[in-house]
Design a protein that fits this description.
The complex is a heterodimer of chains A (226) and B (184). By secondary structure, chain A is of the alpha/beta class. Chain A has 6 helices and 9 strands. Chain B starts with a strand and ends with a helix. The chains are: A alpha/beta (226), B alpha/beta (184).
Chain lengths: 226, 184
């Protein structure tokens, strides 16, 4: 089946894409660029760099803008998926949703209206087991946003590895943090992985942090042969 | 051993991660052994060696199972606990003489439990996640457990521990699968 993946460049959409590539044919990535940094639907930090990941993975990227107002962004998402259906012949849509009923329901409804299949291959996955899968399958994932207590500045730009997963497990027990950031605690960006033909090297980035809210904004990056 | 039946359109499909693996995860964490088998690959041996059976759901557009009810006639004589979830409930209904009817629903909604059962407990309201294009009519010999005629949320065979629920317990209602695993 020809599929389009809703794509942010974060770990969830990249790993969902990997699973889709193993069973079906991914023909395009679809990125919604929201002007609203607090969008409920769309990952925002560094989403403008999704084009670099798409190029690294050798897949075409359909970029669609939205102002990010709550219901208008859903109309924009539907328009983007309809264009992907027309342009790339997609028969289904893949998302990286794990727990968010809010996101899943809205994408399911849009797919039904457009007569498309909808797949959520990370749905209800155990979050710690999932992070361990990312590390064992050699995805290079960095944290590009933190938005919750007690995540301090040291988390911004950190790589997800076994040690960091252990810290997240401890924070899950103590503070009910969702280890994979499903509650909006963390945002990520993927630099490399088994489905990447080239890896991404960051040449310049700006780090900001205040009151348990921090961001790593990638300013300059390039593709490097593996 | 719990037999988890994959009702998706083909074995090892992308939908399996969404509709089968979450159920298997709940069963595993509840301490039970399980075996996942696609409905097209079931054998008498695997059904016989299981203690109980779960029929999982499918993607919204996936209705192949409904066109292959002939592969599920073994349920008629099953004498062990069975839980049909969404598509699985539709299969149970069809096998026992009910109908699969268009009845689309997506999202969280209130569910009124009207009859006490070991699976869902006493009458009360709970919230459940729905993702289906089809619902069912009540088959002969079954009791309505939750919902109402025209929107059946749960049913149970009047004499045997065969249950169907149209909503997805893997979303915020994992206790239902845990209770099923531990049914006496």
């Amino acid at each position: 089946m020809k599929l389009g993946v809703l794509f942010s460049g974060g770990k969830d959409s990249v790993y969902a894409c990997k699973r889709a590539m193993e069973t079906d044919t991914v023909v395009c990535l679809i990125t919604i660029v929201s002007e609203n940094p607090d969008s409920y639907m769309f990952h925002t930090p560094n989403v403008r760099r999704a084009d670099l990941i798409a190029e690294a993975m050798g897949l075409p990227l359909l970029t669609w803008p939205t102002e990010g107002e709550e219901e208008i962004e859903l109309r924009d998402l539907k328009d983007a998926i309809a264009v992907a259906k027309e342009r790339y012949g997609i028969e289904g849509v893949v998302t990286g949703a794990i727990e968010s009923v809010y996101q899943a329901v809205r994408v399911q409804r849009i797919c039904r209206e457009l007569d498309l299949w909808c797949f959520n291959p990370l749905w209800q996955i155990d979050q710690v087991e999932y992070l361990k899968l990312l590390v064992s399958e050699v995805f290079e994932v960095i944290i590009t946003g933190v938005f919750a207590y007690p995540l301090d500045e040291s988390w911004v730009g950190a790589r997800i590895d076994d040690g960091l997963i252990r810290k997240l497990e401890a924070l899950q027990r103590m503070y009910k943090i969702n280890p994979s950031g499903e509650g909006g605690e963390l945002e990520t960006f993927v630099l490399d992985g088994p489905i990447f033909r080239k890896r991404i090297e960051i040449l310049g980035a700006e780090k900001t942090y205040e009151n348990y809210r921090g961001r790593l904004t990638i300013e300059e990056a390039r593709l490097v042969d593996k | 051993m719990i037999l988890i039946v994959d009702l998706c359109r083909k074995p090892a499909s992308l939908s399996r991660y969404e509709f089968v693996d979450p159920i298997a995860g709940i069963v595993r964490r509840a301490g039970s052994e399980y075996e996942i088998v696609h409905f097209s690959e079931l054998t008498d041996e695997v059904i016989e060696r299981s203690d109980r059976v779960i029929l999982c759901g499918t993607a919204l557009k996936d209705d192949l199972y409904a066109r292959r009810i002939d592969l599920f006639t073994w349920i008629e004589d099953l004498n062990k606990p069975l839980l049909g979830i969404c598509a699985g409930m539709q299969v149970v209904a069809a096998v026992f003489g009910g109908e699969i009817v268009p009845q689309p629903k997506i999202g969280l909604d209130e569910i009124e439990i009207i009859k006490e059962t070991p699976l869902l407990g006493p009458p009360r309201e709970i919230e459940g996640y729905h993702l289906h294009n089809f619902g069912v009519t009540l088959p002969p010999g079954f009791d309505l457990v939750a919902g109402r005629e025209g929107q059946i949320e749960a049913f149970k065979h009047a004499e045997r521990p065969i249950y169907g629920i149209i909503f997805h317990p893997e979303v915020r209602k994992r206790w239902i699968v845990e209770w099923f695993v531990n049914l006496g």
